Amino acid sequence: MALRGPKVWLWRWRRNPLKRRADRVEAWVVLGVWMLTVFVGVLAGMTVSRSVEDGLARERVEWRPLVARLAERAPGTASENGDVSRAEYVWAEARWTAADGSPHSGQVRVLAGSQAGSPITVWTDREGRQVTRPVTESQARVRALLIGGLAGVCAAAAPLAGGRAVRRRLERRRMDQWDAEWSRFGPMWGRTTG
């Protein structure tokens, strides 16, 4: 890598009689890469964010709670003092009927010692399959922003890495040209007048 002097604002765009063609090309490459990086990052982030938020909104509309009944007594013993905040939750088998009338069953979290036949709320999709509770609008917004931001950063890394590779190649080429010129003119400096 070439030696660098102190940072000068917008040095690539200043007029200079010693500026070579390679310097002008590099200036345009840097500008293009930064513009492409910002454009790709913002576009990818917004697209992914909107897609995630739409998918979560669709889940809120399509997923419905149903009342299921425990198929068996839940393992463990019920809390002795009735304090629900300190109660132990266990997995138990529950059965429910979907909107189309088809029977379904699955594992649900219930209080330890719950009796068989106890009503339990389960969330189901259109086909009656068990799903998790859908996220709220604010949770969906936060999730979409985080996933969109991550996708934007990852997408922006591609043009940025490509630009770095192009700059490295331009700098290597510039150094090779400098070496060639130095080998041509360097020996002239070693001559003495006599």
Automatic annotation (TrEMBL):
Domain of life: Bacteria
TM region(s), chain numbering: 25-46, 144-166
Key words of the record: Membrane, Transmembrane, Transmembrane helix
Protein's name according to its UniProt entry: Putative membrane protein
Organism (species): Streptomyces azureus
